[in-house]
Design goal:
The complex is a heterodimer of chains A (666) and B (326). With 666 residues, chain A is α/β, with parallel strands linked by helices. Helix content of chain A is 27%, strand content 23%. The chains are: A alpha/beta (666), B alpha/beta (326).
Chain lengths: 666, 326
């Protein structure tokens, strides 16, 4: 009735090898009992045990048996296949066996490490070995296929991570497409005045790299653009990029900025995004003087031409005739072999912590706003001033706003302690104010970081250990009149304190970009529940993702400071270069396939393939799986209503026989 | 040479399968001239004792329809199994358990109570329930035991072939009889119908979107279905993709969604599970709440997806507190 009738090769000869793993397995499982049972299982011609099957002598036992013709398929009962499946498959291949005529029974992680009772552990091992034997009887020889890798790379995000990765790849001679959604590259780093702990001028170290990107013959830079489509697979991605109209022809504009002067708005009137709202810009603008590319952009939301009509003085004044109000968005398509995501982070919205008064009291600032205030190119020319234009005499910096807080984000944003120290130093330097840092714990691991903290302690910055309860303007004493009062427990003194200050700086944490979920869907990778892109392995594959050919750089993977972002960008570039250097990718054969004779062309599989690997063959009216695109997730196989879709290494008969193998020993 | 002997029998069924035989119309004359019908309770006056009197394997083929849910039915199919060379499970109920198999969502007590006491059309103030033995002045009366679990035919006796459908399509009956008479039979256990899903020859297939995705499901009375367009694409739960073809898509041609009476193709182990995962695959949402809202439009999921196949499914029945089947 079902496909469960025995259709396997009657002459199958299975070798079963039980590993002691030292005492890891043998300490809990009666190995000899398992061997004895294995010998009696149908199809088994050899059953042996060995202390370490993964060792060279262990592998040689299997290879000998294959060469002698005793076995044509292998079951190893040992650890997780994640650990040693490649080892044993490799050993089989070296002995001219087919590496896919292999099944592993995990009797370590699934049995000996998690079972107290020896008898039960032995019983479970027997059941798992029986299952693996029943399954491997239905394995078919399979081969891996190779496809070439396109040497071009797409880098998404033009912050410091994307810039560094782009330059690394481009300097290695690879063609780079760098896509940035803002009108300029530079990211958050371009907004900072100084960087910790060395107090390097941020712009001085960043802008040469930005110019290098712009000038590099191997880099195509698309700013004000978004990736809107990703198709294909490792080595062979097809990318669609939407270039939004900036109404200024990029190739013509020389960055003289005369158009901005000529605008009918004589002064900036609209929120200046680059200065996080602390300044106003005109409808035609460049984000900042070193913007790259230094090409003006017209905001159609605010430009008078688009709202009513305008005499277009900007266009008249432009000698290059670079202003083009008829510009339309454009879609470009490129082929790349690898992708580096460097989409960065956003800062925590401080208004979510209402008790700190952000948005209510004008002198409560976020750290990013203060970064702009201390920046010589910022809206105040580097002066740290209050809303009324006066210098503050006292400043409180509240740490962990949106970090280490059960009400917002539980994680530590990693950079806030250090940038708070930096801001404390800069504010003190500019204003000579009394600066108070309210912290939970000072976290300053990193080269030169603890030393910087030491330095700040000696500079006379005040440190108060305690989470701030609230920021209020409710004065209880004459000292507090006209001030913002910080109420916090000083846990080192053991008292609740009220400290009146002129200015409050909220050290906001880092959060995943609001559209991180859309981005991860488009690039077919995973997110942690906080929204950070998920690396393939937290320790051993920190810049790879579960999608081959897609790599991560910078804070899109989790909170990071500049040195970490740059290091990771370099690592991501190296991974991409390694992929290109090999020149091809080997595709695992655990792919889905359609048995034409059973496919009714119902298309149920079409919508659910996460890799767009299924198409309809219009001549035969059946579904076809592109083996190069298929990742072997099995979704379509489960959905196929008539069992026409099957998956190599996971056919129904393999799975059902595996289950039966277990059930026979339960 | 004497003509091959043929028996028909019905168990827990509606009688529709018997109609299907009669629906052969004049073709039945050909069948009758080629075979000897030795047992057919619905049409001919033979008794159980006549069957018992036959030699073992004397009957060439027994067509048995209906699910098995009583001791009497069990006795009769065992008797026919002994007397017949071939047993064909005829129709959805014998094949997979059929509509009566939905009784496996309940148990015997609940069913008997509903039928004999609680049903609105029943007056039974004394709450008398049928029992196997009842003593009356004239003597002792007996009734067959109603089983707690409804079974398909092959869960009770060995079955050689299956004719699917509710009822089996006339052309498939004709082909099956022809094949038996000629001795041109496929491997034992074969379902005597094409082994591919209904969409394969659905006239509406080309109207199905390239990537079908649904935000809403409807029951047939809730919408006026477009008579040309794929029913599933209109949100009607057409189980054509899951169901074996061979019926000539009569329901779809009548603008009604396929309910799955022909059962699964040979590659599918559990029809309802497959139907469920196929339909779930079409739900067009990634939001848990929205998905729950869309799915909630499927009234009676067991009755929808396991309408004809609950006894033959991997689960057989609602868990009744015991690991024994029965």
């Amino acid at each position: 009735m079902s496909s469960l009738d025995n259709k396997h090769n009657g002459s199958a000869r299975v070798g079963v090898y039980i590993c002691h793993c030292g005492i890891n397995i043998a300490g809990k499982v009666h190995i000899q009992d398992v061997v004895d049972i294995a010998k009696k299982l149908p199809g088994v011609t050899v059953a042996k045990e060995y202390k370490f099957m993964c060792s060279d002598p262990g592998q040689e036992i299997i290879q000998e048996d294959i060469k002698k013709g005793l076995i044509d398929r292998v079951v190893v009962a040992s650890c997780s296949p994640l650990m040693h499946e490649p080892t044993f498959r490799g050993a089989m291949a070296k002995a001219d066996g087919n590496p896919f005529m292999f099944q592993m029974a995990n009797i370590r992680e699934h049995v000996s490490w998690v079972t107290k009772d020896k008898g039960l552990a032995t019983d479970k091992s027997k059941a798992l070995v029986a299952a693996a034997v029943a399954r491997v009887m239905f394995h078919q020889p399979l081969t891996k296929t190779q496809v070439p890798v396109n040497p071009n790379v797409l880098i998404v995000g033009g912050g410091i991570a994307g810039i560094h990765a782009a330059l690394t790849m481009a300097n290695a001679g690879k063609k780079v497409y760098l896509v940035e959604r803002e009108p300029t590259i530079g990211g958050h780093m371009a907004k900072f005045d100084k960087t910790f702990p060395t107090l390097d001028c941020s712009a001085c170290i960043l802008t040469p790299k930005m110019s290098a990107v712009r000038a590099h013959p191997n880099i195509t830079l698309w700013t004000y653009s978004d990736v809107v489509g990703v198709d294909g697979f490792v080595g062979n991605f097809k990318i669609k990029v939407k270039l939004r109209p900036r109404y200024v022809i990029e190739e013509e504009c020389v960055g003289c900025l005369e158009c901005i002067e000529a605008c009918i708005f004589k002064h900036g009137k609209f929120k200046d995004e680059f200065n996080v709202g602390l300044a106003k810009r005109k409808p035609i603008y460049v984000p900042f003087p070193q913007a790259t590319p230094l090409v003006a952009v017209i905001d159609p939301e605010t430009c008078a031409y688009f709202r009513a009509k305008c005499k277009k003085p900007c266009a008249d004044v432009c000698e290059k005739k670079a202003i083009d109000f008829n510009q339309k968005e454009e879609i470009v398509e490129v082929d790349v072999g690898s992708i580096i995501l460097a989409t960065g982070f956003k800062t925590f919205d401080a208004s979510r912590v209402a008790r700190y008064g952000y948005g209510k009291y004008p002198n409560v600032y976020t750290s990013l706003e203060v970064e702009r205030l201390v920046n010589a190119a910022g809206p105040t020319g580097g002066e740290v001033v209050l809303a009324n234009g006066k210098k503050p005499k006292s400043v409180a910096i509240i740490h962990c706003v949106g970090s280490r807080d059960a009400n917002s984000n539980k994680y530590c944003s990693k950079v806030c302690c250090m940038y708070s120290l930096k801001l404390a130093h800069l504010v003190k330097e500019r204003t000579e104010a009394d600066v108070y840092n309210f912290y939970i714990d000072m976290r300053t691991p990193g080269k030169g970081y603890e030393e910087f903290y030491e330095r700040l302690l000696l500079e006379g910055i005040n440190f108060i250990r305690g989470r701030v309860a609230e920021v209020t303007d409710w004065a209880m004493t004459p000292d507090e009149e006209e001030k913002l009062v910080i109420r916090a427990e000083d846990t080192l003194v053991g008292k609740v304190r009220r400290i009146p200050v002129d200015m409050v700086v909220l050290a906001v944490g880092m959060e995943a970009q609001p559209d991180a979920d859309d981005v991860r869907r488009m690039f077919n990778i995973s997110c942690s529940h906080e929204g950070w892109f998920l690396e393939r392995h937290p320790k051993l594959a920190p810049v790879s993702t579960l999608t081959d050919g897609v790599f991560l750089a910078g804070a899109c993977q989790g909170p990071k400071d500049i040195p970490d972002s740059v290091a990771q960008a370099g690592a991501a570039a190296a991974e991409a270069l390694a992929l290109i250097d090999i020149g091809h990718v080997e595709l695992e054969p655990n792919t889905a396939f359609v048995r034409d004779e059973f496919c009714s062309g119902c298309r149920t599989c079409m919508n659910i393939c996460p890799f767009s690997a299924i198409a309809i063959d219009t001549e035969k009216d059946t579904a076809v799986v592109n083996g190069a695109l298929c990742k072997g997730c099995g979704t379509c196989v489960a959905a196929c209503p008539s069992g026409a879709l099957q998956q190599n290494l996971f056919t129904d008969e393999q799975i059902f026989h595996e289950i039966e193998g277990v059930m026979n020993y339960v | 040479m004497s003509k091959p002997k043929v028996a028909f029998y019905w168990c827990a069924s509606c009688g529709g399968c018997e109609e299907a035989v009669v629906d052969l119309h004049e073709d039945i004359l050909g069948v009758v001239s080629a075979v000897d019908i030795v047992f057919w309770p619905v049409a001919l006056d033979f008794k159980r004792s006549d069957v018992e009197a036959m030699k073992d394997k004397e009957v060439a083929v027994a067509f048995i329809n209906g699910a098995i849910r009583s001791s009497e039915q069990h006795e009769m199919v065992e008797l026919l199994r002994r007397k017949a060379q071939l047993v064909v499970a005829f129709g959805s109920c014998a094949h997979l358990g059929g509509i009566p198999g939905l009784a496996n969502v309940f148990d015997r007590g609940a069913i008997v109570n509903q039928a004999c006491v609680n049903a609105v059309s029943v007056v039974n103030d004394q709450k008398v329930l049928p029992s196997e033995e009842t003593t009356v002045p004239e003597g002792k009366l007996t009734l067959p035991l109603l089983w707690n679990t409804v079974k398909s035919l092959d869960q009770t006796i060995d079955v050689d072939y299956y004719l699917p459908g509710c009822p089996p399509p006339v052309n498939l009956i004709g082909e099956a009889v022809g094949a038996i008479l000629k001795g041109e039979l496929p491997a034992k256990g074969t379902v005597l119908a094409p082994d591919i899903a209904l969409c394969d020859d659905c006239v509406r297939r080309d109207t199905k979107p390239e990537k079908p995705a649904l935000k809403e499901f409807f029951r047939p009375h809730q919408v006026k279905a477009d008579p040309e367009k794929c029913l599933l694409a209109q949100g009607l739960l057409c189980l054509g993709p899951v169901t074996r073809k061979g019926c000539g898509s009569v329901c779809v041609k009548a603008n009604m969604p396929c309910t799955g009476c022909m059962g699964p193709t040979s590659n599918v182990v559990d029809y309802g599970a497959k139907a469920l995962s196929a339909i779930a695959s079409l739900v067009d949402s990634n939001d848990d709440k929205e998905i729950a809202a869309i799915i909630s439009k499927v009234a009676d999921p067991v009755g929808t997806f396991y309408r004809y196949s609950l006894p033959a499914s991997l689960l057989h029945r609602r868990y009744n507190g015991s690991t024994e089947r029965g």
